[in-house]
Design goal:
heterodimer, A: mainly alpha, 3-stranded antiparallel beta sheet, two-stranded antiparallel ribbon, 12 helices, B: alpha+beta, Alpha-Beta Plaits, 2 domains, 4 helices, 5 strands, 14% strand
Chain lengths: 357, 157
């Protein structure tokens, strides 16, 4: 009984964390793009005249979207049209269950892992759910029965097959180095030290794998350098026929994918919740110093480290989104099939050779 | 291959430029929050309704009709502004003035601001210097079209 309660509380906490971060990523996107372009950005949303640099803006957006008309065009396939945004949202939101936020906390002799779903195929689960998310886009594009949405959906599918293979292959080298598919195990492996000094993070062991995964994951988020399904400026994309909260779900899925990709990059390549030289009882510096800390401080350090890394990668992705123009259709295919896949194969072979020496 | 590496370097340089903008602007924003005054600002934005830019002296804003010393409009209803107006937004109805020096005065003078394109031709056409566009009023929006019909009482100033 208490186990079920603990899982329930963990789910609630993880969802609150994810949704709050998603909401505020919209704010970060507005503000960061503004600062990049020498502007100020949305700062007018206020409650009782108090406007804290526009921090209420996400709520204003949400309220606006909720009160808009829930519109379904008469020529669309109604059931699928309604289903698509929920599919898209669900498959992305569920991936948070496999991401470890921290090591464990012990209350009253009970050890609670700080992740919801400690399964042995965690990595495969995340990848599978992320690629299922594209079904929402395909169904949305097809069921709207509009040629522009159909083009958007097809472009989404074409993009999927060009990055998904590289996304999977780039992680094989990582799985060879950390022989596990369990995400919490992978993070534990990254706590060890390389040459006794550098933490064994994925970025140091798999730099090429990191680059390939980063490119492919950027394509996964379907944001600007790779926003072929949307193409805001020419075809309006797969959500042309959506409005109100259903459109809002697609939009939130976009931002949520940024968070999930940041979580994955952190977990796989930047040590997850690991702080360099921090063990379960405190810091053990390689030059011989020690700084012992109590259990709760260590947990705090771990969760804060995870959050800071995720924030950094979200920031970096927003920066990338506001820097580059869109890749052309064939350029993305070229990059996926002719550059990323051969490079990831080279990475696998190279990792194998290095490991066998 | 070398070409590809060159492209890659250029791509990285692009993100360095945006990152530089971000950090430099954030630096000045933080200085402002800390209360340190700097010559350079973090953003070029003018927060419009609170902060207004000074209008140029030649800026063409809302029209005004000039008055004689006795308070009557200087306009003699010669219809030159009506003729010059490309939007045909001025309506003048002339009436006879007992003063032989003046002879005519406008009984009605209506400018339809919903049609006016603020070209200033009426100002140039006026032989009596009776109409000017120097009130510096530029916020003229109204909720109905009737409110944009400015008559003699509103224009004289």
């Amino acid at each position: 009984m208490i186990e079920i309660l603990i899982v329930f509380i963990k789910i609630i906490f993880a969802l609150i964390w994810l949704l709050t971060l998603t909401l505020y990523l919209t704010w970060v996107e507005r503000k960061e793009s503004a600062v990049i372009q020498d502007r100020i950005g949305a700062n007018r949303a206020s409650i009782l005249g108090i406007r804290i640099i526009g921090l209420f803006q996400p709520f204003a957006d949400a309220i606006k979207m909720i009160f808009k008309e829930d519109f379904t065009p008469s020529f669309s396939k109604k059931f699928l049209h309604d289903l698509a945004p929920f599919l898209s949202f669900f498959f992305v939101a569920i991936t948070i269950s496999a991401i470890p936020f921290g090591d464990f906390i012990s209350i009253g002799g009970k050890t609670i892992n700080l992740l919801i779903l400690d399964i042995n195929v965690g990595l495969l689960f995340v990848l599978a759910m992320l690629s299922l998310g594209i079904y929402g886009i395909l169904i949305a594009g097809w069921s709207s029965n509009n040629k522009f949405t159909l083009i958007g959906g097809l472009r989404g599918a074409a993009q999927l097959i060009s990055y998904e293979v590289a996304l999977g292959l780039s992680l094989i080298g990582l799985i060879m180095v950390y022989p596990s598919l369990n995400l919490s195990q992978i993070v534990h492996f990254q706590g060890e030290l390389l040459f006794g000094v550098v933490p064994k993070w994925g970025i140091f062991l798999q730099p090429l794998g990191f680059m390939i995964f980063f490119f492919a994951a950027l394509a996964e988020t379907k944001r600007v350098p790779f926003d072929l399904p949307e193409g805001e400026s020419e075809i309006i994309g797969f959500f042309t026929e959506y409005g109100g909260l259903k459109w809002g779900l697609f939009m939130m899925t976009d931002f949520m994918e940024v968070i999930i990709v940041s979580c994955l990059l952190t977990t796989l390549f930047f040590g997850g919740w690991q702080v360099p030289w921090l063990a379960t009882d405190g810091f053990h510096f390689p030059w011989g110093g020690e700084w012992l800390l109590s259990h709760w401080v260590v947990v705090l350090f771990q969760v804060a480290a995870f959050n800071i890394k995720v924030f950094f990668f979200s920031w970096l992705q927003v920066l990338i989104r506001w820097t580059y123009p869109r890749f052309r259709y064939d350029q993305l295919m070229d990059m996926g099939w002719k550059l990323l896949i051969p490079l990831s194969l080279v990475n696998i072979v190279g990792t194998g050779i290095l490991m066998s020496i | 291959m070398i070409k590809a590496i060159e492209y890659f370097i250029e791509i990285l340089r692009g993100s360095v430029i945006t990152a530089r903008h971000f950090f430099v602007n954030m630096f000045f924003h933080i200085l402002k929050v800390m209360g340190i005054k700097t010559k350079r600002k973090g953003a070029v934005t003018i927060q419009y309704p609170e902060e207004k830019k000074e209008l140029a002296s030649r800026h063409r804003s809302l029209h005004r009709l000039m008055k004689r010393e006795n308070g009557k409009p200087r306009c003699v209803a010669c219809m030159l502004c009506v003729t010059a107006c490309p939007s045909e937004c001025i309506y003048v109805e002339a009436a006879e003035d007992p003063d032989l020096e003046i002879q005519k005065y406008p009984a009605k003078f209506i400018i339809d601001l919903s049609r006016c394109c603020f070209c200033g031709f009426c100002v140039e056409a006026c032989p009596e210097d009776a109409i000017r566009m120097d009130t510096d009023q530029i916020e003229l929006a109204q909720y109905s079209r009737e409110d944009l019909l400015y008559d003699l009482d509103k224009l004289i100033g």
